[in-house]
Amino acid sequence: MAASNQPARVVVIGGGLAGLASTMKLAELGATVDLISLTPVKRSHSVCAQGGINSCNDQTRQLGDAEWNHLDDTVYGGDFLNHQPPVKEMAMWAPKVIELMDRLGVPFNRTEEGFIDRRRFGGTLFKRTAFAGATTGQQLLYALDEQVRRCESEGSVRKFEFWDFLGPIQDETGRCRGAVAQNLTTMEIRAFPADAVVVATGGCGLIYGRSTMSVFCTGSAASRCFQAGAKYGNAEFIQVHPTAIPGADKLRLMSESARGEGGRVWVPRKAHDPREPKQIPDSERYYFLEERYPEYGNLVPRDIATREIFDICVNEGLSVESDRMCVYLDLTHIPRHELDRKLGGILEIYEKFQGVDPRDEPMKIFPAVHYSMGGLWADYVKSADGGLEAGAPRNHMTNIEGLYAMGECDYHYHGANRLGANSLLSCIFTGLFTGSSIVNYAASQTSGADDVPESLLASAVQAQQERHDHLLHGNKDSDENPYLIHQELGDLMTRVATVVRKNDQLSEAMGKIDELHERAMRVNLADTGAWTNQNVVFAKALQDMFPVAKALLKGALQRDECRGAHFKPDFIKPPLTSEDPTERRRQAEAWCDAFQANNEKYLKSTIATWNAETNQPDLTYEDVDTSLIPPRPRLYGLVGAEAIEEVWNERAAATAADDDTNRYADSH
Amino acid sequence: MTAPETSIKNRPQFINVRVLRQDEPGAKSYWELHKIKYEREMNVISVLQRIAAQATTVDGKKVTPVAWDCGCLEEVCGSCTMVINGRVRQSCSALVDRLLADNPDEIVLEPMTKFPVVRDLMVDRARLFRSLKRIQGWVPVDSYYNLGPGERIPREDQERNYPLSQCMSCGCCLDACPQYQKIELTQNEGESDEEFEQRQNAEFDEAFIGAAAISQAMLFNNHPTGKALAAERLEALSGPGGITTCGNAQNCVAVCPKEIPLTRSIARTGRATTLHAIKKWFER
């Protein structure tokens, strides 16, 4: 048993920030860890994160900031779909996380005096973001990679790199007793018994074909848990990053830090103005974010920036180029040496891939799929102070006992829209925080990794072997090609489920995706070999994209509202139109009534469970814990915001007074 | 830098791609010619994606997709290193228009030369990661508990360390190095995976460590806590396969995609190991 004398044995799937943070913390707490990753962990997708990592800090505190404000910005930016206790705990930990990463040697940019430098990111008015050039994710990942290498040489961690997680092993009670994985070189399928399994496998951007994500981000690992019975939350919430460089194989991220350091987004006022951008005088440039959002300017939350860029190109027809949609992101007014010091990494990417120096010429950018706010449902235990109960075994456990989810593939932290520089934080925080929960869970079990019946392991391997063999030899007469189906899937998802969503398109797409799914199950592979067969590995990942894609489409179809990244123009809450004070007041009242009614219906987590009989997800809705900060209208830039805010504040004050009266009555 | 579009006048309809393939370790390698449709803004990754999808050579012969390694596709993960038109580099940042401007006839893809081929363009770079253990490439902190901030670090130290810390373990510097020789062992009959790994590591630890790890040692030796292991790192770099094996060809710095000042790190290591040796002599 794991309980008394044996150290806990944990299998961690995924070696990005969340998986590595989890691994090293578990090792520190005495567990032994088998770390399974598709790629050498140093190459995980976290390397692509650019801009930084947020925390309240000594400077911002003196301007009125506190952890509470970080929580508030995060849930307001997330349109209140975030679970507040975990977000609160994360905000409280944030300064400590950055201090730890600093001790681990992350080369954060420094002020002249040698303190960690900070910059401002979207969705906040404070400079909370610590950064290491424009490759912060890479630098944080390397620090954790180094520590895990250290654990490995001390013997507490074994790495299985170039291994593909195929599914959890569950006993007759449904409890997770380990994982099945496949060696991508020898194609050997093996069982890894464990006291607990951690899934930290990131996002699912490849469902969209091209996105800002790495090729590993197929979402297949999460999907395999989903298909094994794990619940999946908020699948429809996909962040489309406002600024990416279009490319044939990938849409490369252009970090929000470019705007954080003063980058300005604009288009020529005259459509497809043929002049070079530098020849266009200021008066003929439309700085549409600054004009439309005077307070936040270029640093509005990502969902808003994305929609505005989309709107400028699609509805206003003001794209810089006539045959391709893009807007300018301009840094040319900032001194070169400052750009090199703070943004060097991302400017080099632009220069290398576009052949243009962004220090001399404005960049051309367009939105791209970037992050999955949704993911595997996981539990948590709320503490008396409204955060999380440290060490509680249920923290981050999915509904499959013993199976944990963290990092981008969980669903709690970012609600309907993630704020920039919060993802690195949520990954490292969840990895560190859950260490004691997992160790405590393992210790509470009477039957552990060593007691898993051999027959259970063998049958789990057998099932995966059958799937593998069927893919190699089962569809000899079919001419379905996994790469081409993937392109079709990506085109479909990009068309109907990114920036703007419409019910007729979504319904139609659900029919098409059923057909694509069936075709994907019949792929005939060009490679049927038993050595480094990337063809069959990709085919499996492709098949497993469909359950998540279906949950995404169905979740989007059923959510008739606009919330964060999920935008349906047919259900938009209109701005106030009247100039007459009385009428305007009445409109504001009506607006707030509608807002409240909508929240009652839709301020819920979408929870998908996979139905293997129908090959479809079943959806239910769960309440969101908004006990710390009551939901309020998200009014960035809306016409009539002041009037709505006034009505809303009066109502909030009245509710608070009522609560006080009730409490007074209760106590007597 | 000029825009890639302007450097190529007549866009071809098709691109010829010659790939050096190998079915498994130890097998004989062979050339295969593929022809794919030209598209705007292609890189070698998208070329290989098209090849995988069509899985047919120029002669119409059905073949398996070419195996290769890739990850981020924006030159920060280090996965996709290969030899392209004779030069070791990342395939994601190898833009087709540029390659065609240099050689309009074909694009030639080969696996790295200093690492054992797993299959086609996939190689086994375990030795590269092993070298990071050899120099104890980490900061030996007490624990992962919250113990307050680290030491204050002057801006010039950060600016010296940050470039070194961008090393993505791609292996370009090793492939281009005349002193770095390929080590390819095969697992013996009856030898367990663990035993094989041990034997392999022993071999790696005697051979030239290469520029990447030398530079990492300098990175950690220049960190306030990292330098607690400075003597151990210098010791590792003083032994066989250490700094004295470097022949100063300077190929490493020429091919590094991140333009890391590798030769500067090597020079610093040379001085530091000399001082280390003198210190040791006095302490005898």
Q: What general form of chain A does the structure show?
A: globular
What is the CATH level 1 assignment of the largest domain in chain A?
Answer: Alpha Beta
**Can you tell me the CATH topology of the largest domain in chain B?**
Fumarate Reductase Iron-sulfur Protein, Chain B, domain 2
How much helicity do the residues of chain A have? 25-40%
Percentage of residues in DSSP E strands of chain A: 15-25%
InterPro entries (chain B): 2Fe-2S_ferredoxin-like_sf (IPR036010), 4Fe4S_Fe-S-bd (IPR017896), 4Fe4S_Fe_S_CS (IPR017900), Beta-grasp_dom_sf (IPR012675), Helical_ferredxn (IPR009051), SDH/FRD_Iron-Sulfur (IPR050573), Succ_DH/fum_Rdtase_N (IPR025192)
Organism (chain B): Allorhodopirellula solitaria
Domain 4Fe-4S ferredoxin-type (chain B): 156-188
Family (chain B): Belongs to the succinate dehydrogenase/fumarate reductase iron-sulfur protein family.
Could you please describe the fold and organization of this structure?
Chain A: One of its GO terms (molecular function) is succinate dehydrogenase (quinone) activity. Chain A: It catalyses: a quinone + succinate = fumarate + a quinol. By secondary structure, chain A is an alpha+beta fold. Chain A folds into 4 domains: 317 residues, FAD/NAD(P)-binding domain, CATH 3.50.50.60; 126 residues, Succinate dehydrogenase/fumarate reductase flavoprotein, catalytic domain (Flavocytochrome C3, Chain A, domain 1, Alpha-Beta Complex), CATH 3.90.700; 100 residues, Fumarate reductase/succinate dehydrogenase flavoprotein-like, C-terminal domain (Methane Monooxygenase Hydroxylase, Chain G, domain 1, Up-down Bundle), CATH 1.20.58.100; 72 residues, no CATH class. In chain A, the strands form 5 sheets. In chain A, strands 13-12-17-16-14-15 form a 6-stranded antiparallel sheet. A 5-stranded parallel sheet of chain A has the order 6-2-1-10-19. The termini of chain A are far apart. The mean pLDDT of chain A is 95. Chain B has 2 domains: 116 residues, Ubiquitin-like (UB roll) (Roll), CATH 3.10.20; 158 residues, Fumarate Reductase Iron-sulfur Protein, Chain B, domain 2 (Orthogonal Bundle), CATH 1.10.1060.10. The longest helix of chain B has 21 residues. Chain B is α+β, with helices and mostly antiparallel strands and 284 residues long. Chain B has 11 helices and 7 strands. The chains are: A alpha+beta (668), B alpha+beta (284). Chains A and B meet through helix 1, helix 4, helix 5, strand 13 and helix 10 of A and helix 2, helix 4 and helix 5 of B.
